[in-house]
Structures are given as structure tokens and as C-alpha cells.
Amino acid sequence: MEPGSDVITELAADHRELEDLFSQIELQPVDHPRRRELADRLTAELVRHTVAEERHLYPAVRKHVPNGAAMADKELADHARAERMLKDLEDLSVDDPRFNDTIAKLKLEVASHTREEEHELFPKLAAALPPETLDELGRLVRRTRQIAPTRPHPSLPNTPPAHRLLVPGAGLVERVRDLLRTTTR
């Protein structure tokens, strides 16, 4: 993805990456350990994506899109459901039958959320904001993904101002934990 992509291009690219991760998980044999690795990567990418949306996309939707508050609230509820599924998935081994069920339910939730954003929310946002503002939001999304947590935290607030204070600290702790986990393997 080129630097300087607008928020819609950035988030749509994330959606494609998430779809690809779901496909990679499905291609693995049912009990294969690679499924756990891919599920962990999916979790990290989905958490970073949702944090960026919650921090930048939904406040812009609330402010600039007609009926934006209701749209943002619905998207936040979708995120909360997905985050609870990610938290459940975190504790499951690949040989647990609930692992596959949770992946399947999560895929449906994410696919539905993605369709709604790409077919309803993104066009309305593009109509409401000038290209420069969409570009600036894209820059903010890119920066937020770099510092966002990599694990689900259903109990953390998903709206500002508390979200802006707590999320970067959680992201730093998790990135250090992820780095240590990778180097000890």
C-alpha cells in the first residue's frame, strides 16, 4: 500500500488482509498448529484495525455523516462482539472443537461488518469529507496501527477520551510481550 493512502483505501486494504488470513486458516488441516499461529496473527491485525477505526473513523463519521452517531454506535457494537470472540479464541487450542466454531462465527461477523462499512459507511464518509481530510485520516490510521494493542481487551473503553489514554500503553506492553514470545521460540 502506498504511503499517503486515504482512510478508505487504508481500511479496505485491512479488510482484504483479514479475508486472506481467514482463508489461510481454513486451508490448514483442522488440528494443525499453524492454525494457532494464523489465528494469533488474525487477532493482532483485527485488534489494530478496530482500534484505528474506533479512534479515527467513527469520530469522523459521528461528526460529518448524516445519522453518523447511529452508524458509529452500530459499528462499535459489531467490534465489541468480535472482540469477545477474539478473547474466547485466545484461550482455545486448535484441537478444541470450539476453536473452529469460533473462527467460523468470527469470520461471519467480520464479513458482515466489512460489507456494511464498504457499501454504506465509506461512500457516505467520502461524500461528506474533502480528499485532504480523508488523506489526513489515513495518516492517523497508519500511525495508530503502529502503536495499537495486539490482543483483545473487551473491558477497555472503545471511545475517546479514555480510549486515547489507555490504548497506546496497552499496545506498547503487548508489542514487547509479542517480541519476547517470538525470540523465545
List keywords for this structure.
single chain; 185 residues; mainly alpha
Topology:
Layout: H1 7-27, H2 33-64, H3 68-90, H4 97-128, H5 131-147, H6 162-183
Task: Write up this protein.
The protein contains six helices and no strands. With 185 residues, the protein is mostly helical. Mean pLDDT is 86; it is low at 169-185. The chain is elongated, with a radius of gyration of 16 Å.
Strand content: under 5%
Measured distance between first and last alpha carbons: 30 Å
Helicity, in percent? Answer: over 70%
Report the mean per-residue pLDDT as an integer: 86
Radius of gyration from CA coordinates: 16 Å
Largest sheet: none
Would you identify the regions where 5 or more consecutive residues have pLDDT less than 50?
169-185
* Estimated structural class: mainly alpha
State the total count of DSSP E strands: 0
Order of helices and strands: HHHHHH
Shape: elongated
